[in-house]
Amino acid sequence: METLNTRAAAVASDILTSQESNQAVVLSGAVTASRSQRGWLFGIGTLGILLASVLISPWTATQEAPAPIDPTDYAARTKHVLSTTPLIDGHNDLPYLIRNELKHQIYNDKFTFNTGLLSNTDRQKVRDGMLGGQFWSCYIHCPKDSETKEDVPLDEPTWTLRDTLEQIDITKRFVNEFSDIFQFCSNSTCAREAFANGKVGSFIGIEGAHQIGNSLASLRQLYDLGARYITTTHNCDNVFGTAASTVTAGREDKGLTPFGEEYVAEMNRLGMMLDLSHVSHETMRDVLRLSEAPVIFSHTGAYALSKVLRFAPDDVLKATAEKGGIIMITFVNRFLRPDNPDAATIHDVVDHIWHVAQLVGWDYVGVGSDFDGTPVTPLGLEDVSKYPRLVELLMERGATDEQLRKFAGENILRVWAEVEKVAERIQAEGRKPNEAYWEGRTWVRSDMNAPIMFRDSLGKRVPSYLGNP
């Protein structure tokens, strides 16, 4: 240290001596003066750099590398991992709670997100849980007949699309209202930037393609509003495919419909992630066969461990990995322990994560809690604050920090980025928006006497609501 300081002081002295010599020549003329001034400025700059090095070098020389973390200190390791990698949850239903209890009104004293909520998610729980990103579910239930309690016919008009738009609206307003902690994002790059900014990246998923009005045009509009994944079915069949709940009820698993194949193609073209949570096993297999992009399970589990038909069997887990997708494990008691839901604990969730990781690798597993979408969660995973404990238990099982970075957020960010790349390629190839429509759709027009564009249109137009051609 003394040698370095002495050397810097000597160089600085030489520079000053040189500048004094240069000043003696200033009177000789304007040209010489100009050169002398440049030399003087150069010397001062160099002197500043050297002096800075003299001042800084003692500090840098005394710095030591951070002490290595004890491999058995799982809490410290978890804090380090989640401080440097975003933990991104694939599914949280808080917007639906806001709809049901506040009718989307959050600008009042009733919505105590800052000071605490009885449900799974609030400010303190988010911070304690070291949450780094969240797909907020813009969920609206499958429409039911008020008398029979059965699913309404697929072509029956409902308010589902309107309600979905309101869910998107409240999600965005919620994120904006608490913008000191959240940042809305519609691409994978922004998700990383939000985490770097100390914010929880906030993204939109739609939990059921019954919410898009049986229309690919509506799908495109929801994409434009920021939705980045759609669960292909919820607990009802739709015009695109078969739900797991249908098969559970003893009905046939028909997989994707022909219109569902068009839906998959348009989702790929848009760059929207296909979510296979809630769908039947044959629908899972059909989507995996057709999709050009990786798929996700935003909140699911391993069928090998829990014989629940909305969980993915091993062949589907393998196909998902081969496609480059991700299986995000849920926290729903009745699915994790269908034999005894009350006995479900955090260890059951660890079991499902471990099964997927051991079967297909740590590159294809993540977390999708379903917080605020289920009345009861496993013991040890009571709310959003408990994510670190989940990571600690995975460490205790033998997971490395690198594997847990993938699990926490790197996997879903990789999948999202790949889906975006596939869309860029498809669009660069010139593929146009898909104009297919559901064959079961009822078309009507007004009865006004509008002009026609083509001579052969009479008798072929959409009929009027009075039945006129």
Word description of this protein:
It is an enzyme of class 3 (hydrolase). It catalyses: an L-aminoacyl-L-amino acid + H2O = 2 an L-alpha-amino acid. The protein is built from 16 helices and nine strands. The protein has helices at residues 2-23, 30-62, 74-84, 94-102, 123-128, 160-177, 188-196, 216-224, 244-248, 258-270, 281-290, 314-322, 333-336, 346-360, 387-397, 401-428, and strands spanning 87-92, 131-137, 182-184, 200-206, 227-231, 273-275, 296-300, 326-329, 365-367. Strand 7 (296-300), helix 12 and strand 8 form a beta-alpha-beta unit. The N and C termini lie far apart (95 Å).
Briefly characterize the structure.
The chain is of the alpha/beta class and 469 residues long.
Describe how the helices and strands are arranged:
Elements: H1 2-23, H2 30-62, H3 74-84, E1 87-92, H4 94-102, H5 123-128, E2 131-137, H6 160-177, E3 182-184, H7 188-196, E4 200-206, H8 216-224, E5 227-231, H9 244-248, H10 258-270, E6 273-275, H11 281-290, E7 296-300, H12 314-322, E8 326-329, H13 333-336, H14 346-360, E9 365-367, H15 387-397, H16 401-428
Parallel strand pairs: 1-2, 2-4, 3-4, 4-5, 5-6, 7-8, 8-9
Helix pairs in contact: 1-2, 3-15, 3-16, 4-6, 7-16, 8-10
Transmembrane segments: 40-61
Cofactor: Zn(2+)
Family: Belongs to the metallo-dependent hydrolases superfamily. Peptidase M19 family.
